[in-house]
Design goal:
alpha+beta, 6-stranded antiparallel beta sheet, 20 helices, 29% helix, FlgE_D2
């Protein structure tokens, strides 16, 4: 590529807009970069030791380039110590050097550092997903609800949300869903219950009465177990319904209680949960979970309509129907508390050994004792019912369950499985955050960073300083201290130039002198935003046009440690006299 007719600043501004794309294109046209990337992609995943990495020159060059450490390519003693010592130890080279680039490099390969340079598997992962070894989730504190309930031009309507995944303090997942039931006489009054959609009865029995204004906004919410209002504030007050998650921690026989708030929105507000203005409104939320019904009016003879249990490709799936009170009419009339009501659900569980087979039985989703019959269903490749209890049949026997001395019968209609993954429902969302524990190196990231490094270090960009400006822009956002800046030769060179110093003579000063001179020149409060960093890089390019510098190979990492023209460099931090030897190995021995 030729950029000789363009000013360095305009070239930099153009390059910064799409550097990732430009670097990928450069990598395809530059023979050396293309060859080394191909070798890395072919061999990296088979390397399981530091010695193996050091013996593979191409893979090593890509890795060092990706971490901005190409200058260490011949310093095998330092590389080996960085990768075979635990970077979390204060005695390790990476930690004790206070060199940010070295520490980042060692930390990325911590799998080796904590196992003396070897591992049973390669630290290189082909993609971001396989680089994540484990995930932890913050305990859920709030479930936010965003739904539009059916309009007030009918009564006795119901709505059940899709489940949402919540997490306890040990990152265990629990599925929670909400069932809304409209009052039979007052169409603007609803009862909402949260329940364990896994059917494990981890949610305490609960019931809240929610009343809506004529315009569909929230008017009030009352805890039906106490008769007390959930919120006593006026318009704009948040309506949060408390529910309790009961967990038995692993290895414990006791139960812990985790409080979760159901955030319905605000009194008089138009967000959160509202009622539709009419039954024809397109905004009405559709029930995502089926419920038992009592079509004959009998409280003991129930029906489960045909439902889609899950997907053909899914594993370890369950389906729990929404809680159903077969005595709801009489319970409502007699004011029976939620804790004293009989609630029934049919739970379906996929067989882990035979994914096409599901078992069904009746439970109380809040944990009351239920004795139930059971049956199994199997499905064909199209998701249609194929077998019942291992026999080719479409006739499903009724489920029977006894609860509190009463026998209930459920007529089950043939279910099915979906051939496609359903779209994600966003009615319920939580505040849980995920933390990924990454102990492998993403190969795609390494290649991308290496290509950026090669692009920035091509001859055209090195001659006019654009490569250094691009590197500075890319790296500076994570640099917050002068020590971090001075541990990176390119960042240091940019700062020296902008500060009005000639890097070739500045490097002859001892480290403490360099610190004193730069401390008053580099203001990190003015290097916080992308715009500030870009303006600083442009100043660097402008200074080069005023006072050109003789281009040569980028300063090596060892320059900072007194390994080149510097008389002391950063090695002065360690009280090391480097005048007697320029060997990186001797320097390392002297420093540590």
């Amino acid at each position: 590529m030729s950029i000789s007719n363009a000013s360095p600043i305009s070239t930099y501004i153009s390059a910064i807009k799409n550097e990732a794309t430009a670097s990928a294109t450069y990598a395809k046209t530059d023979a050396t970069t293309k060859q080394e990337v191909a070798k890395f992609e072919k061999d990296a995943a088979s390397i399981t030791s530091v010695d193996g990495l050091l013996k593979d020159y191409s893979v090593l060059q890509v890795v060092l380039g990706a971490y901005g450490l190409s200058s260490l390519s011949n310093a095998t003693a330092i590389i080996k110590d960085l990768l075979t010592q635990d970077p979390t130890s204060s005695k390790s080279l990476a930690k004790s050097s206070n060199n940010a680039a070295w520490l980042a490099f060692a930390d990325a390969f911590k799998m080796w550092g904590q196992n003396k340079g070897t591992s049973s598997v390669s630290p290189f992962a082909p993609d971001a997903t396989s680089a994540v070894i484990s995930q932890t989730y913050s305990a859920t504190k709030t479930i936010s609800v965003n739904a539009t309930l059916p309009a007030a031009d009918a009564t006795g309507q119901t709505y059940t949300t899709a489940p949402v995944t919540t997490y306890d303090s040990q990152s265990n997942a629990h599925q929670v869903a909400l069932k809304w039931t409209q009052d039979s006489s007052n169409p603007r009054t609803w009862t909402v219950n949260a329940y364990d959609a896994d059917g494990n009865a981890t949610i305490d029995t609960n019931a809240y009465q929610v009343v809506f204004n004529q315009d569909g906004s929230l008017a009030s919410a009352t805890d039906m177990s106490t008769g007390k209002a959930v919120t006593s504030g006026g318009a704009g007050s948040t309506v949060s319904l408390p529910i309790t998650l009961n967990i038995t921690p692993s290895g414990s026989t006791g139960t812990t209680h985790q409080s979760i708030s159901l955030d319905l929105g605000t009194l008089g507000g138009t967000g959160g949960v509202t009622m539709a203005s009419s039954s024809t409104s397109s905004t009405i939320s559709k029930s995502q979970v089926a419920s038992l019904t009592s079509p004959s009016g009998s409280s003991t003879s129930l029906t489960l309509p045909s439902i889609t249990l899950g997907t053909l490709s899914g594993t370890n799936q369950t389906y729990v129907t929404a809680p159903f009170d077969p005595n709801e009419t009489s319970d409502d009339a007699n004011g029976v508390a939620a804790a004293n009501r009989a609630t029934l659900s049919v739970k379906w569980v996929q067989d882990s050994a035979s994914p096409s087979t599901w078992q069904a039985y009746i439970i109380d989703p809040y944990g009351a004792q239920v004795t139930s019959t059971t049956f199994t269903t199997s499905f064909d490749s199209a998701g249609n019912l194929l077998k019942v209890n291992g026999q080719y049949s479409h006739t499903i026997p009724a489920l029977q369950a006894k609860m509190n001395g009463v026998t209930y019968t459920v007529d089950v209609q043939p279910p099915n499985l979906s051939t496609s993954t359903p779209s994600q429902d966003s009615t319920l969302t939580t505040d849980s955050k995920v933390t990924n524990t990454v102990t492998k190196v993403n190969m795609n990231d390494v290649v991308s960073q290496f290509e950026l490094s090669q692009y920035e270090n091509n001859n055209d960009f090195q001659d006019n300083g654009v490569g250094n400006a691009l590197y500075f822009t890319r790296k500076m956002s994570s640099v917050t201290t002068l020590a971090q800046l001075m541990s990176d030769p390119i960042l240091l060179k940019v700062a020296e130039t902008v500060s009005g110093y000639d890097p070739s003579t500045f490097g002859t000063l001892d480290y403490n002198q360099q610190v004193r001179m730069l401390k008053s020149k580099v203001d990190f409060t003015k290097l916080r935003t992308p715009k500030q960093i870009q303006q600083y890089a442009e100043r660097y390019l402008a200074m080069l046009q005023i006072t050109p510098q003789t281009p040569d190979k980028p300063a090596t990492m060892m320059d900072l440690y007194g390994g080149d023209s510097s008389k002391a460099g950063i090695a002065a931090l360690f009280g090391v006299n480097t005048s007697s030897s320029s060997s990186s190995g001797n320097l390392y021995s002297g420093m540590f």
